[in-house]
Amino acid sequence: xxxxxxxxxxxxxxxxxxxxxxxxxxxxxxxxxxxxxxxxxxxxxxxxxxxxxxxxxxxxxxxxxxxxxxxxxxxxxxxxxxxxxxxxxxxxxxxxxxxxxxxxxxxxxxxxxxxxxxxxxxxxxxxxxxxxxxxxxxxxxxxxxxxxxxxxxxxxxxxxxxxxxxxxxxxxxxxxxxxxxxxxxxxxxxxxxxxxxxxxxxxxxxxxxxxxxxxxxxxxx
Length: 221
Hints:
Elements: H1 43-53, E1 60-64, H2 70-78, E2 83-88, H3 91-104, E3 110-114, E4 129-132, H4 139-149, E5 155-160, H5 163-174, E6 181-187, E7 190-195, E8 198-203, E9 207-213
Parallel strand pairs: 1-2, 1-4, 2-3, 4-5
Antiparallel strand pairs: 5-9, 6-9, 7-8
């Protein structure tokens, strides 16, 4: 090519290599497993979590136990004027979280924090919203610290799959003052499969969500 020239490129096809609407396909996240597998929160549950968190422009969010980053990345992608901190202690998951961060272009408003909650939260700014997807056995302590540091009118969403984790959430919620709003949701999702070339719906493990909404100036001890 001559150094002085004009190149015209005509694009064809549907385009849209990355999503333009909330609900990123599970297969687009890198996890080190086959597409759609690995430690990510599935799309339908992810959207429910973000709906409960109600993030707004300028908000600070914590994603505790971020795994490969699906919730934090979708959160940061659709709220570019907010700030999300993703906390994870697994070296392998942190690697894929970083890969996904670059893939979806959320390098300015998503910070990946290496560490274990609740200690890893000490240096973070107080949150407007918190998602707890993993706790490493410190769920009650994480909930207590999160709700104390949560800004007035802020929201916490915690997810649980195992009965042990569900019981911990129930016990914690029952200890809260009535001034803190408590909402329970359980998502029972089935996805299509086939048996003998016939359509079947394969149930996934139900996911329980606890949503806590803090009052204007409430402190929990």
